[in-house]
Design goal:
This protein is an alpha/beta fold. It folds into two domains: 7-230 and 295-306, 3-Layer(aba) Sandwich (Rossmann fold); 234-275. The chain has ten helices and twelve strands. The chain has helices spanning 50-58, 80-83, 101-112, 121-127, 143-155, 173-190, 201-207, 225-232, 254-265, 279-291; strands at 10-21, 24-35, 39-43, 65-70, 86-89, 161-165, 193-197, 210-215, 218-223, 236-242, 245-251, 269-275. Strand 6 (161-165), helix 6 (173-190) and strand 7 form a beta-alpha-beta unit. Helix 8 packs across helix 10. The model is unreliable at 1-7 and 296-307 (pLDDT under 50). It is a peripheral membrane protein. GO terms for molecular function: ATP binding. It is found in: Cell membrane.
């Protein structure tokens, strides 16, 4: 987060994005930006406009107003060269049931060849954990294996920006962990920007560098999980035992309090636990604030560096 931001680092620049369906205004001025190698989770209650936002950024839907640039191009005017720089993992792909996994990925890779070098098929299959299933038809795969194939389809063209819509639905715990490792490798090693939507707040907290909370058609919060939690909860809860007694204390500076605790009691302190607000706590509180009309949540200072 310390390196200087330049214009060439920007993958997404969204300003005052608006979208209406008839008389219903779904997006009412959403504004945010993102940069290369950054993983962003877009959260929000049902009907907040998450899917509409993603579809506009992908170039699948025309917006009603506002300014949008994705990899330096207005998605409404994006050509095939621009589309080749994107990766998209939808909640469900059209049926590729008759294709064998390896053949399908090799075939799709050919579409990217005129624009960029697609991934080696065997390396791609290994990266998503389908090595033992590369010879199978897609229709023979389990739900979790089909989802791994969806992810492989999304990254076969080495995208500069990857959109993930509920990417780990149907994953078992090991598959979920493998997927998280893959996303981190894409971001850290290949500088791929990632924008994902998920209802799994634990996943968002583990994966995302930044969290965007969309409510009422606007971005009402923008920052890391820790930054957002500090906006909601000014104090941390500290629990410990001493001489068999259990103690609980709230402190604005948990580190200073714990340091003082050990300075006074040393080895008498046991079962120490420090709890800050979780992302779930933060999310629920921020949505509650918005729904109750207390939506004056400003962007964090960090965002000024992205402008």
């Amino acid at each position: 987060m310390s390196r200087q931001i330049t214009t060439t680092d920007t993958t997404l620049d969204v300003r005052d994005l608006r979208m209406s369906y008839g008389t219903t205004e779904v997006l009412k001025g959403a504004t945010f930006s993102a940069r290369k190698g950054e993983v962003i989770a877009l959260l929000g209650p049902n009907g907040a406009g998450k899917s509409t936002t993603i579809e506009i950024l992908e170039g699948f839907r025309m917006r009603s107003g506002g300014e949008v640039e994705v990899l330096g191009t207005d998605p409404a005017r994006g050509d095939e060269t621009w589309r080749s720089r994107l990766g998209v993992v939808l909640q469900s792909w059209r049926d590729h049931g008759k294709w064998r996994v390896r053949e399908l990925l090799a075939h799709l890779g050919e579409y990217y060849a005129p624009y960029r070098e697609p991934r080696d098929v065997d390396e791609l299959i290994a990266a998503v954990g389908l090595t033992e299933h590369g010879h199978k038809r897609a229709g023979q795969l389990s739900g979790g294996q089909r989802r791994r194939l969806d992810v492989a389809i999304g990254i076969v063209g080495r995208p500069e920006l990857l959109f993930l819509d509920e990417p780990t639905v149907g994953f078992d715990p090991q598959a979920r962990r493998d997927f998280h490792d893959l996303v981190h490798r894409l971001a850290d090693d290949e500088n791929t920007g990632v924008l994902l939507t998920t209802h799994d707040l634990d996943e968002a907290e583990k994966l995302a560098d930044r969290i965007l909370i969309l409510a009422g058609g606007r971005v009402v919060a923008d920052g890391s999980a820790d930054e957002l939690s500090r906006q909601v909860a000014s104090e941390s809860e500290i629990k410990w035992t001493r001489d068999g007694q259990r103690f609980v204390h709230a402190a604005a500076d948990a580190t200073a309090f714990v340091r003082g605790l050990f300075a006074q009691y040393g080895d008498e302190i046991a079962d120490l636990e420090v709890r800050r607000a979780t992302l779930e706590d933060t999310y629920m509180e921020m949505v509650r604030r918005f729904e109750s009309g207390q939506d004056e949540i400003t962007e964090l200072p960090f965002q000024e560096a992205l402008r």
